[in-house]
Amino acid sequence: MLNKKFLDQANFELQLWNNYFHLAVAFLTQESLQLENFSSAKRAKILNKYGDMRRQIGFEIRDMWYNLGQHKIKFIPEMVGPMLEMTLIPETELRKATIPIFFDMMQCEFHSTRSFQMFENEIITKLDHEVEGGRGDEQYKVLFDKILLEHCRKHKYLAKTGETFVRLVVRLMERLLDYRTIMHDESKENRMSCTVNVLNFYKEIEREEMYIRYLYKLCDLHKECDNYTEAAYTLLLHAKLLKWSEDVCVAHLTQRDGYQATTQGQLKEQLYQEIIHYFDKGKMWEEAIALGKELAEQYENEMFDYEQLSKLLKKQAQFYENIVKVIRPKPDYFAVGYYGQGFPTFLRGKVFIYRGKEYERREDFEARLLTQFPNAEKMKTTSPPSEEIKSSPGQYIQCFTVKPKLDLPPKFHRPVSEQIVSFYRVNEVQRFEYSRPIRKGEKNPDNEFANMWIERTVYTTAYKLPGILRWFEVKSVFMVEISPLENAIETMQLTNDKLDGMVQQHLEDPSLPINPLSMLLNGIVDPAVMGGFANYEKAFFTERYLQEHPEAHEKIEKLKDLIAWQIPYLAEGIRIHGEKITEALRPFHERMEACFRQLREKVEKQYGVRAMPSSLDDRRGSRPRSMVRSFTMPSASRPLSVASVSSLSSDSTPSRPGSDGFALEPLLPKKMHSRSQDKLDKDDPDKDKKDKKKEKRNSKHQEIFDKELRPVDAAPQGSEAVILSETISPLRPQRPKSQVINAIGSERRFSVSPTSPTAQQTPPPVMPRTKLSFSLQSSLELNGMSGMDMAEVPPPLPLKGSMADYGNLMDSQDLLGSPPPPPPPPHHRHLPPPLPSKTPPPPPPKTTRKQTSVDSGIVQ
């Protein structure tokens, strides 16, 4: 009926024909006709009675398609999906009859547009969904390849482009079938590998929407495994596809409902925030900072969102602090080879470099690897496998530890902190090496270093680690042999670098444990432990070796130079070790010092003296982080309740306020000390003893801090040394010595130096201070009295607020040399004091220090 009534040009009904094809395919693919899902008995009964109706309907669809003639182009690309669904039915004759329809579609579009781009895009998209849904198998891939290649090669214009297309679809089917096979596998690592294979394929053929789709599948797998670093790198691939612009986001760019964005710039901002969060959780703060800088540029100069900018900069500050303070575990790297035909195609015959988890040893990694392949056999050698193993039907796994090769960024062109460099030793690495010792020539029982060669294999991965996976395939391998002398030079260089790095760490953070430094130093200076470089001297520094290897003279001199340079590093390490050891380890340290003295004498005599590198000297003189922290924070030995304030004479300037409310007297010149202070220092015969006790109470960090400040702000030569004291002196102008403030039987006396009248009337300005600093002048003015009438009207006593402990202040006896007066009777406590009389009142009985301090009007 369709062929007779609705096929000619005048009566052709597109919608009717379209409905026919969809209905026929739906009938053919219905569940009740899928005979492969039935038991063998039921399948045989249906075939005997009805036959395979799918084949009959398929043949009918093929014939109706070919009858369309010039109308075929109207069904491309809409009918590609239904036709693909029909050809995927697991019936061989049906597949052979219907797969040629695809070539006919290619040919129709090519004749119309000189290409078959629409057909190609549609079949790739539909094939992904169909295979992921469970359709398709290895036989379909073979038939598709064979049938279409035969048709394309016979066509004059489609021979080359058609063959390229067929190869492309076959490669896609290989990856999709692998992905479907392990999609529900317990091994998430295998699922990740197949996902990356598919997304790399889509990236290669520039199918952006499919590429992004698999990126998010991979990201979800990483989040399930707590691989936050890899999840961040995966999302970063999506962010790189976007621009900082107002271009509208197309549908495939926003595949997740969580992103509320209408422009590419908004979506990229949201992605960057999420990526920075994942980098933070993965302790990859260097990567988070790099993205933060790019995002901050947008907030500051494009979006003008200063609120978001402030939040971002606070995060960056915390990231920088984490880099220098937080100790990050260094993961190990393992080379894994999969040999034998028993492995899936995406692993078979390939070598990968794996990044281990935190604190994961090789034994633990191997056990985890073998659980994924319980039938695999572990190879016990690191030598390349034989052809017999590679072609065997079994599974063989080879696993060994490799060392990442440091590749520092160009910005680190001068020495920097080891805490910063250590990140690049195990991150952003792409080359890895494995060294295997081999012996050449006769074995020397006295010295094994003379003929120990190193066979070094260098592996280069496809991408840097870490990345979107915790492993990457090895793309190139090359091998080199290292001579015994070159091996000795390399070993000495590594030892010096390790020693330098550990010394640097202890200089920057004195709180580090001493045990690693102890083991490293003892292993070098004590010849009974490792033999030291004496083995190199026996092997290479002989006349016989020079005669046999005359070309090695330059390398021998280099080795001697490295030995000589080791001494200053050892000296600094032993000095630090001596400062930090406990008494229990004192004998161990003394033995180590004795060994070092002998070693130093020998090395400097034979190979010369080397001075400490300037970079290490600079680090030694720099202020460690913990010292800065000690300066700004109170300690138990230096409480904040004591304020050290220097009084000013009439010709001096106000002292600068110290951090956290206390001024540092060593920062002030000698002339800035008040005369009353000088008098106190002179009158106190036990001043030196008290200062020594006070210095013992100071924290270690504060002592170091004081030492570092003295060279900068030291007093002029010939002047008296400035001693840190914690006395309290008033900031107001001093009155003549004859004037004495008397209270009712208990008021404290202030002995002051005479000053000029001008200084009394116009005191020097005082900088605002914290509540720990105080000024007697300001206290009197607050009580309604100025500096002019202080001599006539004594100030009222302050109200007692609460009990406080002023036991750490100096006694009145220390200040005045006389016992302090007692407090007034309770009924006179708040009465104004009388005017000074000619005859002073008799001395009252001695009272406590706390009451004296409170009643004397000192404001804390």
UniProtKB/TrEMBL annotation:
Keywords: Guanine-nucleotide releasing factor
Ranges of biased composition (kind: Low complexity): 634-661, 751-761
Domain of life: Eukaryota
GO biological process: cell migration; myoblast fusion; small GTPase-mediated signal transduction
Feature: compositional bias, Pro residues: 832-846
Span list, region Disordered: 610-718, 746-770, 786-860
GO molecular-function terms, A-Z: guanyl-nucleotide exchange factor activity; small GTPase binding
Domain DOCKER positions: 202-612
Pfam families: DHR-2_Lobe_A (PF06920), DHR-2_Lobe_B (PF20422), DHR-2_Lobe_C (PF20421), TPR_DOCK (PF23554)
GO CC entries: cytoplasm; plasma membrane
Biased composition (Basic and acidic residues): 675-689, 700-711
Biased composition (Basic residues): 690-699
Gene3D superfamilies, alphabetized: 1.20.58.740, 1.25.40.410
UniProt keyword Membrane, yes or no: no
Kinase found in the keyword field: no
Biased composition (Polar residues): 850-860
Family label: Belongs to the DOCK family.
Name of the protein: Dedicator of cytokinesis 1
Annotated organism of origin: Myotis myotis (Greater mouse-eared bat)
